[in-house]
Write a structure and sequence with these properties.
The protein is built from ten helices and no strands. It has helices at 2-20, 25-57, 78-85, 93-116, 118-124, 129-141, 143-154, 158-186, 197-214, 221-240. Helix 1 (2-20) runs antiparallel to helix 9 (197-214) and helix 9 (197-214) packs antiparallel against helix 10.
Length: 256
């Protein structure tokens, strides 16, 4: 996530430098496109390496410690702990893939209706498209992940909880976002990684706070309150920002 944050900060910084040097619009656009497309290729390569690292070469680093969460007074033996940590799968690979495909199709249909209703909501309320797209939609769209992360965290499975909570953001930041830039390149569409300064700063600050919060693999109510407080501050900031102030960016923002 820190790397993806850097990939957004650099195009914004380059655009600001060229803007102050009074460069022509075409020169700025071409420079940002070259930087964004080169960065997208690098991010995709790194995402593939991340998957290989996590699933193949160093998968042992991502396995939860079976004795995590046990206090000094625990009388359970290692064999008992291992038996309790092992969970039998409730469905096979074929059934899981079938359910995933069906759910994906249903989610796509629901998302289409949801996005189509944004204009009516903006017209009938004082909320901007930026606030709806960056604050409300992620809450609704990731509701299942939020519940899953909380449930497994209550069961003291912090590795799984953080994987659920942060994994989708990593997929969007290192996988989907650069992939869309490459697809835009193939379709001759000028999609870049440049966003408005306010969006970029908000994303970078969020990544910084989350990194310091989860790096020790533990959590408590104060850290949770800090994360909720930061999210609320960003939500209030986007709510207070006029809708037309954030519509000039040519890129796309990571709503997770």
């Amino acid at each position: 996530m820190t790397l993806s944050s850097a990939s957004l900060v650099l195009p914004a910084a380059l655009y600001g430098v060229m803007d102050r040097s009074h460069s022509k619009d075409k020169e700025r656009r071409d420079s940002i496109l070259v930087l964004s497309r080169g960065t997208a290729i690098i991010l995709l390569v790194l995402y593939v390496l991340y998957l290989v690292f996590q699933l193949r070469t160093h998968s042992n680093l991502f396995k939860a410690d079976p004795e995590a969460g046990l206090d000094d007074e625990t009388t359970q033996t290692p064999e008992t702990v291992e038996e309790e940590c092992e969970e039998e799968p409730v469905m096979g690979p074929v059934a899981a893939i079938a359910v995933l495909v069906v759910v994906t199709v249903l989610v796509a249909v629901c998302a289409d209706y949801l996005v189509g209703s944004i204009d009516d909501i903006v017209a009938s309320t004082s909320m901007s498209k930026a606030f709806i797209g960056l604050i409300l939609l992620p809450i609704v769209g990731n509701a299942a992940e939020h519940v899953t992360a909380v449930v497994v965290a209550v069961r003291n499975k912090m590795d799984l909880a953080m994987g659920v909570a942060i994994g989708s953001s990593i997929q969007i930041a290192l996988g989907v976002t650069p992939f869309l830039v490459i697809v835009g390149w193939i379709m001759d569409k000028d999609m870049t990684l440049r966003f408005e300064t306010f969006q970029t700063v908000s994303f970078a600050v969020s990544v910084l706070v989350v990194t310091y919060t989860v790096q020790d693999g533990k959590s408590n109510y104060l850290e949770g309150a800090m994360l909720i407080g930061l999210y609320t501050i960003i939500a209030v900031a986007f709510y207070a920002t006029p809708g037309d102030a954030l519509e000039s960016a040519k890129g796309f923002f990571l709503g997770n």
